[in-house]
Specification:
Blueprint lengths: L1 E6 L4 E7 L8 E12 L28 E2 L2 E8 L4 E9 L7 E3 L1 E6 L2 E4 L8 E3 L4 E3 L3 E5 L4 E8 L3 E2 L5 E7 L4 E7 L3 E10 L2 E7 L1 H4 L11 H11 L4 E7 L14 H10 L4 E7 L2 H5 L13 H17 L3 E5 L12 H16 L5 E3 L1 H5 E2 L2 E5 L13 H9 L8
Parallel strand pairs: 18-19, 18-20, 20-21, 21-22
Antiparallel strand pairs: 1-2, 1-15, 2-5, 3-17, 4-14, 5-13, 6-11, 6-12, 6-17, 7-10, 8-9, 8-13, 15-16, 23-24
Length: 401
C-alpha cells in the first residue's frame, strides 16, 4: 500500500491512501450543535485565468486525480469548539454523480471511532446533496486535531479540486504540490454550552493563501485560537474560497450565491465577518473578465444585500475594508480608485454591526496602495504569516458581542 500525505494549512490537511491490492454565550443545559470546523465546497465555474487552459505555473499546483478508486481521503482538521458528541457533514453539492462512501471514521488521541449513517456503515450521497453522519459519543476540546477518514471503494469523480496540498510520501520525501478533491464540509460538536459561531466569509485572503503550510493558518484560524485562549464563547470557522468574488462566479459560486448555504446555514452561526471584493475589482483587468468590470456602487449594493440577508437570518454582520494590492498581477490605477471609494463607504456606513479596518492594518504608511513589505507573501496580494497575525490581532475579541 502506498501512502501520500498531503499537508495544507493549519485548519485542514489531507492524506490520500491508495489501496493497490484489491456561549454567544450563556450556559444552557439543553445541548445544541455548532460548527467547529467548516470548509466551503466549490467547483470552478468559468475560466480560471486569462484563458480557460490549465496553467502549469499555477501557484496552487497542478490538479490532483479527478477520478479515484479504492482510496482513503483523510482530512486532518482542527476544531474550534469543545463538545461531547461529534457528527460529520459530507458534501457532494458540486458533484455531477452520486458518491458512495464505503466507510467514515475519526481518529482522536490515538483511538479510531467509526461513524455510521442511519446505523449503516456506508451511504450513497446523491449529486448536489450533503449528508450528515449519525452522532458519535466522542468528547473533544477546542483546538484538538481530528483525522477524518473517508473510504471511496468505487470509481469516484471528486467534486472539487481547489485545495492546495503538498504531497509527501510516507518516508517523508516531499512531492509536487497538488489540488485534491474535498468531501468533508463540516465537523459539528454537541455541547451543553451555547458558543456562537463566527463565520469568516470571503476569498483567498480569508481562506489563507500565503500562510506557511503546517503553520498557524490565516486570520480566521488565528482569531479562533485567540478566542479559545481568552475563553471567549465563540468558535470561528473559515468559509473562504480562493479566487472568489462577491458578484460573479469564477472560483466557485459568487459570494452572494453561496451566502446562505456556506455561511448563514452553518449550525450555531451567530455572526458573519465579510472580507471580499478585491477579486471583483482586480480580475476584470484581464481580458477574459473585462466584461465583468464592476463599479464601486455595485459592490456597495452587494454589501448591503449581505447585511440585510445576514440580519434576516438572525446573525450579526461585520464588514471589513479591502486590503491594498498594488504590485499584484491584476492591479490597475482604476481598480485602486474603486477600492478607495468602497473603503470610504465602508468606514462611513452605519448599517453593519461592526467594521474591521484590514486596509489600515496592512497598508504601507508611505505607499497606502501597497501592503507593508513584511505583511505580504511575495505577490503583493496575499498576506504573509506576519500579515495574517496582524489581521487577527486587530479584531476585538468582542467584535460579535
Amino acid at each position: 500500500m502506498a501512502t501520500l500525505i498531503g499537508r495544507g494549512f493549519a485548519a485542514s490537511t489531507f492524506v490520500l491512501t491508495l489501496a493497490l491490492t484489491t456561549g454567544a454565550a450563556s450556559a444552557n443545559d439543553e445541548p445544541h450543535w455548532v460548527a467547529a470546523y467548516a470548509f466551503a465546497p466549490s467547483a470552478e465555474m468559468g475560466p480560471v485565468g486569462p484563458t480557460s487552459a490549465p496553467n502549469p505555473n499555477d501557484p496552487r499546483g497542478p490538479l490532483g486525480p479527478e477520478t479515484v478508486q479504492d482510496v482513503r481521503l483523510t482530512h486532518i482538521v482542527t476544531v474550534a469548539a469543545s463538545g461531547r458528541r461529534v457528527r460529520l457533514k459530507l458534501s457532494n453539492t458540486h458533484g455531477a454523480e452520486p458518491v458512495r462512501i464505503g466507510g467514515l471514521s475519526i481518529e482522536h488521541n490515538g483511538a479510531r471511532h467509526s461513524a455510521r449513517f442511519d446505523g449503516a456503515p456506508s451511504v450513497v450521497i446523491p449529486a448536489g446533496a450533503s449528508w450528515l453522519s449519525d452522532p458519535l459519543d466522542l468528547t473533544v476540546e477546542a483546538l484538538d486535531a481530528l483525522a477524518v477518514s473517508i473510504d471511496l471503494p468505487e470509481r469516484t469523480r471528486l467534486p472539487t479540486h481547489r485545495w492546495r496540498q503538498t504531497l509527501t510520501n510516507a518516508d517523508g520525501s516531499t512531492g509536487q504540490p497538488m489540488r485534491l478533491g474535498v468531501l468533508l464540509s463540516a465537523v459539528e460538536v454537541e455541547s451543553a454550552f451555547r458558543p456562537g459561531v463566527i463565520v469568516a466569509f470571503g476569498d483567498s485572503i480569508t481562506e489563507g493563501t500565503g500562510a506557511l503550510p503546517g503553520g498557524a493558518g490565516g486570520w480566521p484560524e488565528r482569531l479562533a485560537r485567540r478566542m479559545v485562549e481568552a475563553k471567549r464563547p465563540w468558535a470561528v470557522v473559515n468559509l473562504g474560497i480562493g479566487g472568489n468574488r462577491l458578484l460573479h462566479r469564477g472560483s466557485g459560486p459568487s459570494g452572494l450565491e453561496r451566502l446562505d448555504a456556506d455561511a448563514l446555514g452553518q449550525s450555531g452561526a451567530r455572526c458573519l465577518i465579510l472580507l471580499e471584493g478585491v477579486n471583483d475589482i482586480g480580475r476584470p483587468s484581464r481580458a477574459a473578465y473585462a466584461h465583468q468590470r464592476v463599479e464601486a456602487a455595485q459592490l456597495i449594493a452587494a454589501y448591503r444585500q449581505v447585511i440585510q440577508r445576514t440580519r434576516a437570518a438572525g446573525l450579526k454582520a461585520v464588514l471589513a475594508t479591502i486590503p491594498p494590492f498594488e504590485g499584484a498581477s491584476y492591479f490597475t490605477a482604476e481598480g485602486e480608485t474603486t477600492r478607495a471609494a468602497v473603503n470610504q463607504w465602508l468606514r462611513q456606513q452605519s448599517e453593519a454591526d461592526g467594521l474591521i479596518d484590514f486596509d489600515a492594518v496592512l497598508r504601507d504608511p508611505q505607499a497606502p496602495s501597497r501592503m507593508r513589505q513584511a505583511f505580504h507573501s511575495g505577490d503583493w496580494l496575499h498576506p504573509s504569516d506576519a500579515g495574517y497575525q496582524a489581521m487577527a490581532e486587530a479584531i476585538p475579541l468582542d467584535v460579535c458581542g
